[in-house]
Specification:
mainly alpha, Histone Acetyltransferase, Chain A, two-stranded antiparallel ribbon, 23 helices, disordered N terminus, microtubule, dynein intermediate chain binding
């Protein structure tokens, strides 16, 4: 197996395909002549070695905390490119899942896998740097990213802006050296010729690749901090080296060179690549070069197959496969034509893999546009033919529907006429009852108006007596039960009190003593004994407040007049003689005054009672008539609803029949107008279908 390793290592240094073929023949000849002729048939046709074929270890739970479960890096022979392709597809999917903001969509043909193997071997080597030379779109950056991910390295690329300068580059280099030298982590620095904003950038990269040192990259205090942090790491790795500043700095630089992998992605087009190689030799001597030659035919076919496999094409699989092959052939022909153009006119024109990808995308775009355009036209023709067929079928169906609807319309007309006759009869009966109800209602309203007028007149009359009544009630409220008891206990009460009580006896229609002249006063002798009985009765004060005022008559008032005409029969005199009992005097005067007004109101009240009786009878008649009217109205509403439903059904049938007629007329006109177009549309639809099939 050692000769194979030598073959791989040397093959990576060749710059053209002829050198590779010559070397393979030479090694076969040497082995046959000087080693063992039987080993020649066992030589591997593509002896490539990688260290990422093994799977990561499965955790069991019994491992120590510091155990590493990453996939073991075993440098071994690739069994076959098919096996390697499957492994790389898995790694690519893992990259797309784990790396945010970056998505790889690579086609792993043989040349791409070969370049990835070379890049992986270079960056997996300590101090390994690569110079990838190829035209734009060859996959240099994408393959480097995937190889760095497989190796477990972080990836760094400068973010070029309008103000990006050497100072920014120095800051980025500090980040790289801290990661690789101070932290001891592997990192890949991808740098393209498009990012050379200033040629001075290459001077710093030349130093990085040549010696690993960049002058004045870190300040003294920064170096002190970095070296102090590396003391423990260096003692563990180099226990016999004293941790002086110079030793620590050398260890830092060597560690940075070991873990920092610079990958330069340059294009050979133009004179810049040649001049830069001469000015900055470290770009060549400090890197392992990998030339990205033009894609071979099988690579071109693999790429087109990858991008067209899921692309919808209206053709057979054989035609699609031929299209895939044709794309690669035409790209090769264009490349040959570019060389002929250079030989004839000495002007270089490059056809890059990016041009090939643009060619594939352009084909897909043009195909999709043409397909959509022709398919839209075909669909329009098909829709027109379908509408014509639907119109023909619709006319036949509408003719049948119209016959049925006309029969239903005739039945609905007969039904509506019958219901209309019922509505007319019910309306006439309801009109008669309504007139009767209106007569009764007018009579009741007339009675109500008369009652309201009499009530208003009585209220006006009674309002005049209201002040006297309120004054009497106020006077009664001043009398306490104790005042009445005091008067009752008097052996010889004042004469005015006895006369006041006589007036009360007259109003309550109680018995008085036989009329005899009082020897002391020019009046009748008071009936004090009867007055004491009245006052001794239970609820005397309540009977005064609830006195039935309508029971006062002309005779009572006439008998009260002699008492009222006496000079001392006044509230002021009674107040002096009787105290609070003087309120009885005001009450008796108010009752007499009330009678003078109420005698005019009493006839009105009597008449009001009569009118209310008449009103009750009228309301009863009105309720009975209204009940009859409601019954008739309910019958009328029911018949009217029935009539409305019948008329609606009739109108709906009329509308349906009219709409059916209009549709039939429109469909017939459409068929007659487009009868000549049907043949042309059918032929055109076939032509469109044929054009779609020829799109491939």
């Amino acid at each position: 197996m050692k000769p194979m390793v030598v073959i791989v290592s040397l093959c990576c240094r060749f710059v053209c395909f002829e050198d590779k073929v010559w070397f393979e023949k030479a090694i076969s000849r040497v082995i046959q002549e000087h080693v063992d002729p039987s080993l020649v048939p066992d030589l591997h046709p593509d002896p490539y070695f990688v260290d990422f074929l093994r799977e990561a270890l499965e955790p069991t739970g019994d491992e120590a905390d510091d155990v590493c479960l990453d996939a073991p890096k075993v440098y071994e022979l690739v069994p076959s490119f098919e096996f390697l392709r499957e492994k790389l597809i898995i790694n690519q999917s893992q990259y797309n899942e784990n790396v945010r903001g970056a998505s790889l969509d690579l086609v792993f043909f043989t040349d791409a896998m070969t370049h990835l193997i070379k890049i992986s071997r270079i960056i997996r080597t300590d101090c390994g740097n690569a110079l990838l030379v190829g035209v734009g779109g060859s996959g240099k950056q994408s393959l480097t990213r995937l190889a760095s991910f497989i190796a477990g390295y972080s990836i760094f690329q400068i973010t070029l802006t309008r103000t990006y300068n050497i100072s920014n580059l120095m800051d980025d280099l500090k980040v790289l050296y801290r990661t690789a030298g101070a932290d001891g982590k592997g990192i890949t620095f991808i740098f393209t010729d498009n990012e050379i904003k200033d040629e001075a950038f290459l001077e710093y990269l030349n130093n990085v690749l040549s010696s690993g040192e960049v002058s004045n990259l870190f300040a003294r205090d920064e170096l002190d901090e970095i070296t102090q942090n590396l003391i423990g790491v260096m003692k563990k790795e180099l226990p016999r080296v004293p941790p002086t500043f110079d030793n620590l700095y050398d260890y830092f630089i060597s560690r940075a060179r070991k873990n920092l992998h610079v990958v330069l992605c340059f294009s050979p087009v133009g004179e810049k690549f040649r001049s830069r190689s001469l000015k900055f030799p470290g770009l060549i001597s400090g890197c392992t070069m990998d030339w990205f030659t033009p894609w071979p035919s099988e690579a071109l076919v693999a790429v087109s197959q990858y991008f067209l496999s899921d692309f919808h094409m209206v053709c057979s699989p054989e035609v699609k496969a031929a299209v895939v092959q044709t794309m690669g052939i035409y790209h090769d022909k264009v490349s040959v034509t570019c060389e002929s153009y250079f030989d004839r006119f000495r002007r270089r024109t490059h056809v890059t893999p990016k041009s090939y990808l643009s060619f594939i995308n352009g084909y897909k775009t043009v195909y999709s546009e043409n397909y959509n355009f022709i398919n839209t036209l075909a669909e329009r023709m098909n829709v027109g033919l379908t509408k014509l067929l639907e119109a023909s079928e619709s006319v036949a169906q509408l003719s049948k529907d119209l016959v049925v609807k006309e029969k239903e319309l005739a039945l609905a007309s007969i039904k509506a006429d019958k219901v209309l006759a019922e509505v007319t009869v019910s309306a006439e009966a309801a009109t008669i009852v309504k007139a009767e109800v209106q007569i009764v209602k007018d009579r009741a309203l007339k009675i109500v108006e008369g009652i309201e007028k009499e009530k208003a007149f009585a209220e006006v009359k009674l309002k005049a007596a209201k002040p006297a009544l309120e004054e009497a009630e106020a006077a009664l409220n001043t009398i306490k039960a104790a005042d009445v008891a005091t008067v009752r206990k008097l052996a010889k009460p004042p004469h005015l009190i006895m006369r006041i009580m006589d007036c009360c006896l007259l109003l309550f229609q109680k018995r008085l003593d036989t009329i005899t002249m009082d020897p002391e006063r020019p009046c009748h002798k008071p009936s004090w004994g009867e007055a004491l009985k009245l006052m001794s009765g239970s609820g005397f004060m309540a009977s005064l407040q609830q006195f039935p005022k309508d029971s006062i008559n002309e005779e009572m008032v006439e008998l009260l007049q002699p008492y009222f005409q006496m000079e001392d029969y006044s509230f002021e005199c009674a107040k002096k003689v009787c105290g609070n009992v003087a309120g009885l005097l005001s009450w008796t005067s108010a009752m007499a005054t009330f009678f003078g007004i109420n005698k005019e109101v009493l006839p009105l009240k009597a008449n009001l009672i009569i009118q209310e009786g008449r009103l009750s009878i009228a309301n009863s008649e009105l309720a009975s008539a209204q009940s009859q009217l409601d019954e008739k109205q309910a019958e009328l509403d029911k018949v009217q609803a029935k009539f409305d439903a019948a008329m609606k059904e009739k109108q709906d049938l009329l509308d349906d029949a009219e709409m059916c007629r209009n549709k039939m007329v429109a469909a017939s006109a459409l068929i007659d107008g487009l009868s000549g177009e049907k043949v042309r549309w059918t032929e055109q639809s076939k032509q469109f279908k044929s054009q779609i099939n020829r799109q491939g």
